[in-house]
Amino acid sequence: MSHHDGNPPPLTVPPLPDVPRRTDPPRFLMLYGSLRERSFSRLLAEEAARILEGLGAEVRFYHPHDLPLKGPSNEDHPEVKKLRDLALWADGHVWSSPEIHGNLSGVFKNQIDWIPLSLGAVRPTQGRTLAVMQVSGGSQSFNTVNSLRILGRWMRMLTIPNQSSVAKAWQEFHEDGTMKDSPFRDRVVDVMEELYRFTMLTRDIRDHLVDRYSERREEAAKAHAMAEAARNAGATD
After folding, report:
1. Three-state SS at 191
2. E-strand spans in 90-189?
3. Number of Cβ within a 10 Å radius of residue 181
4. With CB atoms 3.0 to 4.6 Å apart as the test, which of 45, 62, 78, 96 could cross-link to 133 if both were Cys?
5. Could you tell me which of 131, 185, 201, 140 has the C-alpha nearest to residue 162?
6. How many domains are contained in the chain?
7. For 108-121, what is each residue's pLDDT tens digit?
């Protein structure tokens, strides 16, 4: 039965929670979207990770080489559990994908497909911060970062305003995998600094930031229905 009975609950001003601030380093999960030995999306993520570590953050990578394709027969695969555990561990994510045929790679999308919106009562990505980056073999494009933003919104993440798109990525890295000093690298630093700041500002109140009126109303209606059912059951005993 619908709880939309023509009498919506009154609006209230959402109070800002008074919570203690964590002092441990912010934690970031790095995801990239290519299995190549010299993967430029991985090299870009590694450069971002070095910057975050320089700012004092803790960083972990998920390497997607053994992750199976999304499907019901693979729900208990150990790589799926590893990815989901990392998503729960992280305060924020960095997503780095190559652009293939004008959009993000299947390797990258498969990782996001394996992270559910909810695991029981826990939402692995809700309220986490997110920075998006892409690499291209040719001219600069923003198709992939735009698609990553759509995914981030769908996963209820707080995607920061800044982003990185590296054109002709094969020209932008040294042989040892570090990024050359360039405007592209400056932008990566900009993005990581912004991600760090947004994460420190929001991680302690992320549940409050994504608290929704519609969900509160639905939960209140369910609680009321359960209470009514309990009262009716008691009346017939």
Report:
1. helix
2. 92-100, 103-104, 129-135, 158-159, 164-166
3. 9
4. 96
5. 131
6. 1
7. 999 999 999 887 76
Angle at 167 between CA 166 and CA 171, to 5 degrees: 95
Indicate the residue type of 166.
V
Rounded Cα–Cα distance for residues 106 and 97 (Å): 10
**Tens of pLDDT, residues 27-80:** 999 999 999 999 999 999 999 999 999 999 999 999 999 999 999 999 999 999
pLDDT, mean over the chain = 92
- How many whole angstroms separate alpha carbon 74 and alpha carbon 84? 13
Is it the case that residue 100 has pLDDT exceeding 90?
Answer: yes
Domain of residue 84, CATH code: 3.40.50.360
Residue 38 lies inside a defined structural domain of this protein? yes
With respect to residue 19, please indicate whether it lies within any of the assigned structural domains: no
| pLDDT mean over 209-224 | 83
- Provide the percentage of residues in the chain whose pLDDT is more than 70: 98
Is 232 a member of any domain?
A: no
Six token digits for residue 195:
């991600």
Domain extent, residue 89, equals 27-209
Asked whether residue 237 is assigned to any structural domain, the reply reads no
CA quadruple 43, 46, 48, 52: dihedral, nearest 10: -170
